[in-house]
Amino acid sequence: MEPFPQRLPFHLWAESASHLPPRQPSTRDYIFSKRQRRKGAAAAARTHSRTQHAQLKHLIRRHGGVAKRRLRAPPGRAPPPPHLPPAAELRRVPVRGPRALQPHLRSQGLRGDISVKSIVDPAVRAAWIKEKVDLAKRQHLDGINIDIEQEVAKSSPEYYALTDLVKETTEAFHREIPGSQVTFDVAWSPDCIDKRCYNYTGIAESCDFVFVMSYDEQSQVWSECIARANAPYNHTIMEYEKYIHMGINPKKIVMGVPWYGYDYTCLGLIKAHVCSIAKVPFRGAPCSDAAGRQRPYKVIMDLVNSSISGILWDEEQEAPYLEYKDEHGVFHQVWFDNPRSISLKAAYVKKLGLRGIGMWNADCLNYSGGSLAQEQTAAMWAALIPK
After folding, report:
1. For 156, what's the count of Cα atoms within 13 Å in the CB-facing half-sphere?
2. Residue 360: closest CA among 333, 342, 378
3. Under a CB-based contact definition with an 8 Å cutoff, are residues 54 and 76 in contact?
């Protein structure tokens, strides 16, 4: 496996170019009122195009690779034009050879989703694919990330149609846009998580690689209702073993890690650091992480000094956590990932020869410029590169 620092093999994700380390313009530069959007869209696009292009070049120089931008839009609305804030994500995807060191015109990627019930019809699939390819060509994009997280029953018409969609999309993008990439997001386990019983081997074979979303692993808690890690180490890697055992080439797998955690309100907190949580059922399980609320890493770090525990470490789950008391005197327990836990996973990625590692999402870090924030942010980025 090639060394991580110069060649891939990890993703970089960010909510907007303003959050890319080490220096960015102010967040307020990306905030526009509706009136400003109507009257100044063209001027804004030109201004931010220059700013973001410079930041993309910096990202490429610093990390090596090709920066890609993925556009998001609310359901039923078309994606905004490139370079217009705020609905944008930047990412760098793994590429090999000289292209890994050079920027190029197709420096953006597209997100794709569609109802799985509709794609049983080959004509619907063909029309959807053509629409995405045409959009990619018009906006000089160089790929698509298919993020479909809908229920699919094994061996159902949708099961086969989804695999066909990925295969046909990949063939079309590779044919129409040479050098483009088609990727697919999969759950943290192939065991029909949230009733997503996909043809994982067929999908992996049909696209350039799959991105495993190794987080929210407590979406169903079948044992006692207590707070636990969002992505415990042993639990996480066990699921990668399953993907590989299914026959998926490790070089087609990118590990996703969370840059956020869960803040649980404790119904009771004992000295052994056991936090009892409310019973919030999910898909038949008596408890779930819905009993807590998501907290970005930067917010969790702000809680450290005011916590009653500081950062603690759970040896069994190999994950950090902390405890604090809110203004009403109620105890909370927060589970998250930090450089220590992420470094363990990055080392596993290198050991197993996976394609790379990425995070959800880069906007969870603090880029305010303070010395402590800079140190914490740099440590999280560095954790993606195994020693």
Report:
1. 15
2. 342
3. no
pLDDT score for 78: 41
pLDDT of 112: 67
Cα gap 75→77, rounded to integer Å? 6
Segments in the chain below pLDDT 70: 1-112
Question: Contacts by 330-333 with C-beta closer than 8 Å and gap 24+?
Answer: 330/265, 330/266, 331/265, 331/266, 331/269, 331/275, 332/263, 332/264, 332/265, 332/266, 332/275, 333/227, 333/263, 333/264, 333/266, 333/269, 333/273, 333/275
pLDDT, residue 60, reads: 35
Q: How many CA atoms, within 13 angstroms, populate the side-chain half-sphere of residue 118?
A: 10
Query: What is the per-residue pLDDT for 285?
Result: 87
Catalytic residue numbers?
A: 149
User: CA-CA distance, 167 to 157, in Å (whole number)?
Assistant: 16
Interior angle at CA 183, CA 110 and CA 125, nearest 5: 70
Beta strands in the chain (DSSP E): 12-14, 66-71, 88-93, 108-112, 141-146, 181-187, 209-213, 253-258, 260-265, 268-269, 275-276, 292-296, 312-314, 319-325, 331-335, 356-360
Distance CA 206, CA 243 (A): 15
Nearest to 163 by CA among 201, 110, 109: 201
Report the distance separating Cα 169 and Cα 54, nearest Å: 31
pLDDT number for residue 109:
59
Q: Tell me phi and psi for residue 378, to 5 degrees.
A: -60, -35
